[in-house]
Sequence to fold (384 residues):
Amino acid sequence: MAYNILKGDVQFVNSTSGTIESMVDDHSNQTIAGIKTFSQMVTASLGISSSAYYGNGSGLSGLDIAVTTFSNPTSNALIVAKADANISGAVGLDYNGTILNVTGNISASLNISSSGFYGPATGLTSIPATQLNGNVSAANIAFDANTLANNSGNLQVNLSSASGLESTATGIRINTSLAVVKSSPVNNDKFIIADSAAGNAPKHMLYSAIASAITSGITTYPPNGNNGEIQFKNGSAFQGDAGLVYASATDTLTTVNITASGYVSSSNYFGDGSKLSGLSTTSYGFFTFDFTAAAENDFIGIVTTGSAITASLPAAASFNPGKRFTFKDVSGSCSGSNHIVISASLNSSGESIDGEGIVKIKSAYGSVTIVSDGLSQYYIESVN
Fold:
């Protein structure tokens, strides 16, 4: 009997004959610790399982793999599907672990949501006004130009020049000088008031209500008497009197007596002035021949022409007491027979001047002032 003793590792290589090297255990499981190289195809009726496969897999079939090519493998680029069922690193779309960068536009059929958006928003539309933050220039706001206006980017009320309103640094206020003038109010015209009973709230009142409120607090007193009679207070009423009448047609005031503690002034006086006293005016008369002194003469100038000139006085009773006449030689020619004779008795027998019927002025530029007693005598007041 022969024995074949093998010691150590035995490797069967390239045996094609019916030797022991060509034998394969096809009954039990085998574990191959090293590398087994097959020069021909390995087939299995069930499957071949491995933790990993290496080498050319192009001959495999039935694999559930859609991608065969990965193009543009750029760092941080996001993978996108291509039309040929392969994948590619996206151009202009990358993610660095913190920020997603997009070169181009982002479009969404629904919404794009974020805790915050940054950069220009010029392409956004339909932004709700309630979501705006900050100031919006009036140039970017649609408004009615009849009522509003753009003032350097600020929206302001467009005030009509005749509205009676003006815009100031503190707001809009009423300025009546800007309103159209109305000369005659009517009952339905409205006035703005501050209602003190309602915290000075602005309210309006009709002109008729204002007029009624004013007239209700006024007591009226109708005139009394005939047309033209001047009205005066008589108790709690007006009263006229026939002794004080104004005629508008002739612009004349007619009365019986006027008494004044001060003065009565007029540009002209007419009628009897014989009751006046203390008159300071002087009426001048000028004579070159014999004459009778008139009541209106106060100062009488006389020019002698070679013979005497006689000045006769009216009756003393025709004047109020104190009536004065001053007679003077204004030519300076009185001397000798060229003298002035003043006679009180020529017109009124028995009347005299300081007891004499006549007095004479015989000196050049001489003068004498004579005063009536209002009865029957004249007296010399002064001689010059």
Remarks:
- The chain has a mean pLDDT of 83.
- Residues 204 and 381 are 82 Å apart (CA to CA).
- The chain has one helix and 24 strands.
- Helices lie at 207-216.
